[in-house]
Amino acid sequence: MASQQQLSAIKGAKVLMVGAGGIGCELLKTLALSGFQDIHIIDMDTIEVSNLNRQFLFRKSHVGLSKAKVARDAVLRFRPNVSITSYHANVKNQEFNVDFFKQFSVVLNGLDNLDARRHVNRLCLAADVPLVESGTTGFLGQVTVHVKGKTECYECQPKPAPKTYPVCTITSTPSKFVHCIVWAKDLLFAKLFGDKNQENDLNVRSSDPASSSDHAEDIFELNKDETIEHYGRRVFDHVFGYNIEVALSNEDTWKNRNKPRPIYSRDILPDEPTKQNGNADKNCATDGQSLISAMASLGMKNPQEIWSLMENSRIFIEAIKLFFTKREKDVGNLAFDKDDQLAVEFVTAAANIRAESFGIPMHSLFESKGIAGNIVHAVATTNAIIAGLIVIEAIKVLQNDANNYRMTYCLEHPSRKMLLMPVEPFEPNKSCYVCSETPLSLEINTHSAKLRDLVEKIVKAKLGMNFPLIMHGAALLYEVGDDLDEDMVANYNANLEKVLSELPSPVVSGTILSVEDLQQELSCNINVKHRDEFDEEKEPDGMVLSGWQETSLEKGDSSKTLGNGESTSKTLPSTKDADKNDDTDIVVSGRKRKLDEASSAVDISSEANSSKKPEVLDDDDDDLVMLDDGDSAINKKKRLQ
Amino acid sequence: MDGEELTEQETQLYDRQIRVWGADAQRRLSKAHVLVCGMKGAVAEFCKNIVLAGIGSLTLVDNRLVTEEALSANFLIPPDEGVFGGKTVAELCCDSLKDFNPMVRVSVIKGEPSSFNEEFLKTFDVIVVSCCSLAEKKSVNEKCRKLPKRTSFYTVDCRDSCGEIFVDLQDYKYAKKKLDDTVECQLSYPSFEESISVRWKAHPRKVSKLFYALRVIERFEEAERRNPGETSISDLPGVLKLKKEMCESQSVNEAHIPNALLERLVTNPTEFPPVCAVIGGILGQEVIKAISGKGDPLKNFFYFDAVDGKGIIEDISSQP
Ligand SMILES: [Zn+2]
Predict the structure, then answer these.
(1) Contacting residues of B for A375, CB less than 8 Å apart
(2) HSE of A435 in the Cβ direction (CA atoms, 13 Å)?
(3) What pLDDT does A611 receive?
(4) What's one Pfam family here (chain B) (predicted)?
(5) What gap in Å lies between CA B254 and CA B247, rounded to an integer?
(6) A552-566 CB burial, b ≥16 within 10 A, e <16
(7) Half-sphere exposure of residue B99: CA atoms within 13 angstroms, side-chain side
(8) SS3 for A413?
(9) Residue B163 contacts A, CB cutoff 8 Å
């Protein structure tokens, strides 16, 4: 039961919830039960079947409807007197500006992606509204409190970047199944069914320029006079046979590696066209692309099963056939989508055949889908716990009870007896470019990089700005907005294509650029420094931003230990780049955090402790808990069996 | 892997959680039968969690008619009085729970926990009791331990901003991931009665004060023949007197159970919804672990207090 002071703080509060997914459903329910009267909720997503196992406000009949709206209606059914306002919209829309945020007493995030989290963080800072942030992955979760000037902001700690792989690992020397998935999804699938104009490294230029002729490009075109079966086999033989032979001819590559084995369709599949023994006709009867399935055509059912090489090859050919016969219109403009059954089947089969070729263990469709779609593991219980903790923090924030703000970790394995571990929040990071005024510095080749590169790779991708404005002194170099006149737009577009040093107001070594996002009310300065050369593998952007840090997701060591006196090692909440429609990402950063050893622990066995004061810690427990930038999420993927 | 495959529908619906605990655990869940007695807020949360997770069946016991208090932290009961129509709390909760997951069988049994016989209890794999008297907890727990097959027993209660879970898995074997291997582990649990009978002096160091405070209140309610949770500020002197007696008989200093904590628990016996969410979530996870036989289960008490924010496991077993 809440105290009177708590109740009056709750009743007078106007709360903004961002996200009506896994955490959001639980949070909206708990807020309503706790007595909150005025709740606004934003979510751009619609309901999917895979949400129903944990987003308990949704039913099968709601699939396809707005999460925010359905969640509102569901909660009103058991708490009809609460005022709930729903917005089926992207929180990054301009309508949700600083003034919009200013009307709220506290903002509660139940988001699924880094981008939106950063955006909300900036608006909360600009509007000076406290933010309670959260995330879950499987049994792990965390809640943090961000109050301007009192605690660190969401971006004070470096955030993980999505994992990228060196190009040659994907194109030539895969050593893990995920490399085969990336190849199948980003290169082969994109080549066959995606935009033909996109850059694609599928056919790496071999050392002999003659062999990388036009022929290599034609191979992926369906000829007028051939059957799709023939075309499928031609593609198969090219990517799994010919290309591997070409790669093998490069002896140096294989000195310290296992040689791959070329695979040709004639060795795997009989010459006749593959027979359909499934119920393909049934597929035609029902509409919806998810029902067009190579597995169904071939009479295969179990997504948990690992297919044989022959089964993978059949799926591969069958999926190509189905794309070209049943989904002709899609071919040429498809992007991989984890909810597209046929696309997942094709990518699974292609990745498995490649894995087989390179001696890497094959995986089931279920597992492949998880890897290809970056699917975050999610259970209802963790979301419910985290939602409860969010409300507890929100109530403290409403009472301005700063001394008791905590960030809380929900652990899978107890640490010092704790499954829920509260930690005192950090102070703001003085060199945070978001909540302090520290300038960033950028090394870039000012004679070859265009303004477009700077806008795309730095301002948008790294700084996460949506409506950037770039100034050099008093000169406006670039701006995005709805209210610009045509001349200005033309002018800015021309600037985008110019090399930095040739801009109307040249950007050279020593230039200080001022970058602003008017919607986020965020501005920062970038000190430009010219550099000629960049390492293609390590610095693929061709520029390096510092003062802004990001950590890599994959660092090898995945479990970190907590505390000094503990003998067992525990997996900490970790980092995950969550995909859309799922619940979270979790970030633990690398600093020492003071554990809150409050007075609830009592040493009954010692009669000496008879004073009324909280117990003094008399054993060798170390109160300082080391939270490293764990990255066990990658590891977690392997828990499936 | 025993039993039949998951259906396509199950794989699709449970996709995200199968990625957490595996298809085998999901199959075991779908064959498990759970009994819960006492449908307050924390139990409502727990029921929601395991119904969503895809438990085989859930049987509810709560003969109370709906009151303002029953409504407070329970989102399974629609507030529209017209719907009540003489229905019990369990019946109303059942209707809502069925709706959460059509694949789970949810039903209601009338009766008191103390009257359940072996024939009835042995049809369940997991039994959870809440808002029961000390005597009822002990009696259901003892009956569970006499059943021909191992049955997991839990108690759960929330008051003010605090919650307690007790776990008895008897002699429990489970699998645990250690690096890339799976190792077999075994734990032996004491009963509720055995646990609370362990001399306080023999406890591990620094046991949560909530353990002691809740034992005092439990005893008080029993002595005064109150229903669980039926206390008010006027009971504080009586509770403090009992605390003194209990501390004396256990030869521990009275200061180990802060009066302020007792005052909170006695004055505000109703549940705090965020704490119900936390406790119901932890209990859900524990029951899923116990059914799937995977992962370290908690042994044998869990405490959460929103005031300090800690969720603590205490192992209070008889000493050799
Ligand atoms: Zn900051």
Answers:
(1) 15-16, 19
(2) 26
(3) 32
(4) ThiF
(5) 6
(6) ebeeeebbbbbeeee
(7) 15
(8) strand
(9) no
β-pair type (B162-168, B301-305):
antiparallel
Helix, strand or coil, per DSSP, at residue A142: strand
Tokens of A616: 């003094």
A380 touches chain B (CB under 8 A): yes
B255 vs A612: CB contact, 8 Å cut-off? Answer: yes
Distance CA B316, CA B195 (A): 6
Closest Cα in chain A, distance from residue B76 (Å): 8
Q: Quickly tell me which residue has 């000076």 as its tokens.
A: A128
Residues A407-423 have pLDDT tens digits of 999 998 898 899 999 99
- Give A441's Cβ-side CA count (13 Å radius): 8
One-letter amino acid for residue B222 of the chain: E
Mean pLDDT of B209-217: 96
Query: Is A413 an 8 Å CB contact of chain B?
Result: yes
Closest Cβ opposite residue A605 in set B203, B308, B314: B203
Tokens linked to B44: 């409502």
Residue A143 is inside which H or E element, if any? strand A140-146
Instruction: Take residue A524 and report the two structure tokens written for it.
Output: 């920062």
Cβ-based neighbour number of residue A510 at 10 Å = 10
3-state secondary structure of A514: strand
Q: What SS3 string covers A585-617?
A: CCCCCCEEEEECCCCCEECCCCCCCCCCCCCCC
DSSP annotation of A238: I
pLDDT of amino acid A453: 92
Tokens of A172: 């030539």
Sheet holding A512-517, edge to edge: A475-479, A468-472, A512-517, A522-530, A440-444, A543-546
Dist. CA A193–CA A117, nearest whole Å:
33
Q: Is the pLDDT of residue A487 over 60?
A: yes
Distance of residue A138 Cα from the nearest chain B Cα, in angstroms = 6
Nearest residue of B to residue A582, measured between CA atoms: B16
Q: What is the structure's pLDDT at B192?
A: 96
Residue A594 Cα, gap to closest chain B Cα (Å): 14
Of A178, A217, A174, the residue nearest A199 (C-alpha):
A217
Mean pLDDT for the stretch of residues A354-359:
96
User: In 10 A of CB B119, how many CB atoms?
Assistant: 8
**CA-to-CA distance for A131 and A125, rounded, in angstroms?**
9
A145 closest CA partner among A384, A383, A394, A382: A394
Radius of gyration (C-alpha) of chain B in whole angstroms: 20
State pTM to two decimals: 0.81
Residue A310 at interface with chain B, using a CB cutoff of 8 Å: no
Q: Which of residues 88-117 of B touch A (CB under 8 A)?
A: 99-102
User: For chain A, what is the total number of helices (H) and then of strands (E)?
Assistant: 21, 19
ipTM of the predicted assembly exceeds 0.85: yes
Alpha-carbon distances of A33 from A91, A470, B50, B62, B77, rounded to whole Å: 25, 47, 20, 21, 12
Nearest CA-CA partner of A530 in A553, A560, A500, A489: A500
Which of A478, A555, A543 lies closest to A515, judged by CA?
Answer: A478
Side-chain half-sphere of B313: how many Cα atoms within 13 Å?
21
Contact (Cβ atoms closer than 8 angstroms) between residue B137 and residue B196: no
Q: H/E/C letters for each residue in chain B?
A: CCCCCCCHHHHHHCHHHHHHHHHHHHHHHHCCEEEEECCCHHHHHHHHHHHHHCCCEEEEECCCECCHHHHHCCCCCCCCHHHHCCCEHHHHHHHHHHHHCCCCEEEECCCCHHHCCHHHHCCCCEEEEECCCHHHHHHHHHHHHHCCCCCEEEEEEEEECEEEEEEECCEEEEEEEECCEEEEEEEECCCHHHHHHCCHHHCCCCEEHHHHHHHHHHHHHHHCCCCCCCCCHHHHHHHHHHHHHHHHHCCCCHHHCCHHHHHHHHHCCCECHHHHHHHHHHHHHHHHHHHHCECCCCCCEEEEECCCCEEEEECCCCCC
